[in-house]
Amino acid sequence: MSPKPLIEYLDSLEDPRLESKCSHVLSEVVFMATCAMMCGFDTWTEITLFAQEREKWFKKLLSLPCGIPSHDTFNRVFAILPPESLKSIFQEWVQDIIGNEKVTGQLAIDGKALRGAGKGRGNKTIHMVNAWSTDLGMCIGQQKIEDKSNEITAIPKLLKLLELEGCLVSIDAAGTQTKIASIILEKDGDYLLAVKDNQPKLCNEVKQLFQAHWDNSPTDEQGPAFDEQFDKLHGRKERRRCWVIAVDDSLPLCQKWKAKIVIAVQAERTLKNKTSDYVRYYISSRELKASAALKATRMHWSVENHLHWILDVAFKEDQLQARAGFAGENLAVIRQWILNMLKQNKSRSLSMANKRRLCCLNEDYLFESMALFNK
Q1: Residues 14 and 70 grouped into a single domain
Q2: In the prediction, which pLDDT does 325 show?
């Protein structure tokens, strides 16, 4: 658990409002909203209802100089609060959770759209790029994709905020850019990048290498350069095969990327008597055996299964329509913070949706998750 309560982190938020027009304490507004969202109350009206119904115990924790804010006040505060300020204390909380240890293992970088925030005339969908630690099972950073831009510009900004020493950073093909690879290497990390047609020359070089390898060694499926896995779940059968080849002078483009290995993963899936077969290609700056490469390529998708999917299912993120100013981006950070806090609280084995329900039903569990007291 975090060494200090959530409210103490929020106290360090810089207030963008005019002091003469402030009726409510900034940190208290954000704290009440976070409590409400942790308990499953997500819209401004719901957040206000929760705060009003829990006013007695909020008064035990907060000063509330002007009582409970209105839903318009909650909206305005989050709309003008600079996201970088909230992200900064989120990073501080993550570092306190980790302690003196560095984040190691694999970091999966992937983008997600906040579809609800784009509903309505003239509104644009907000896209966030998230960093997911597969070892910690938590989001450790996020960056909004600016309007009229894409992940290529957002990923470098996110990487520069993170400690990457010793990490294997995995990114889908959208992030397969020399600048991104260079940033990872400069920060003493290693990359695992998907190779697709957005880098046609690199993709062609890797494809030709593996095609020649398969043509010459169609039965060569033993040793550290090959591995395979079989899965059977919910009526779906899957066979995954992985080949790894070291980069040498025959791969000049891969050498330019400072890659040490190239990887091919073939997935054969059978569901309801229908079989699909596809091959994905990767380059990596870390020397990996086929078994480790197969695991890493699969672990990348944990950012989808354990972060993005939960945000959509347990938090209904795609349905939420906070559109004013910075509100959508700020609430996205709060949701990821809540997700991390609830994952850190392992006193009860529950789904994320039920953890939120339990926070609403059990004040001790809510306070424990926020480190307002420790058991």
Answers
A1: yes
A2: 87
Considering its fold, how many domains does the chain have in total? 2
Element (H, E) at 62: none
What does the pLDDT read at residue 374? Answer: 43
* pLDDT-derived band at 22, boundaries 50, 70, 90: confident
| Residues 6 or more apart whose Cβ sits within 8 Å of residue 94 | 138, 140, 141, 340
Number of C-beta neighbours around residue 273 at 10 A: 5
The secondary structure of 122-161 as a DSSP string is: T---EEEEEEEETTTTEEEEEEEEPTT--HHHHHHHHHHH
Residue 311 domain flag: no
- Tokens 């704290």 belong to 31
Residue 59 token pair: 């008064």
HSE-up of residue 261 (Cα within 13 Å, Cβ side): 21
The continuous run of DSSP H or E covering 167 comes out as strand 167-171
For the beta sheet containing 226-233, the strands, ordered from the edge strand earlier in sequence to the opposite edge, are 138-145, 126-133, 105-114, 167-171, 190-195, 274-284, 261-271, 236-246, 226-233
CA 266/CA 277 separation, integer angstroms = 7
CA distance 52 to 48: 6
| Predicted TM-score (pTM) of this structure | 0.88
Bridging pattern class, strands 226-233 and 138-145: unpaired
What range does the domain containing 245 cover? Answer: 194-291
pLDDT by residue (tens digit) across 199-239?
999 999 999 999 998 888 766 666 568 999 988 776 678 88
**173 DSSP assignment:** G
Which of helix, strand or coil describes residue 251? coil
* In-domain check, residue 185: no
Which residues does residue 229 pair with via DSSP β-bridges, in sequence order?
240
Q: Is 106 helix (H, G, I), strand (E, B) or coil?
A: strand
Say if residues 155 and 175 touch (Cβ distance below 8 Å): yes
Q: Are 62 and 28 in contact (CB under 8 A)?
A: yes
CA 191-260-304 angle, to 5 degrees, is: 30
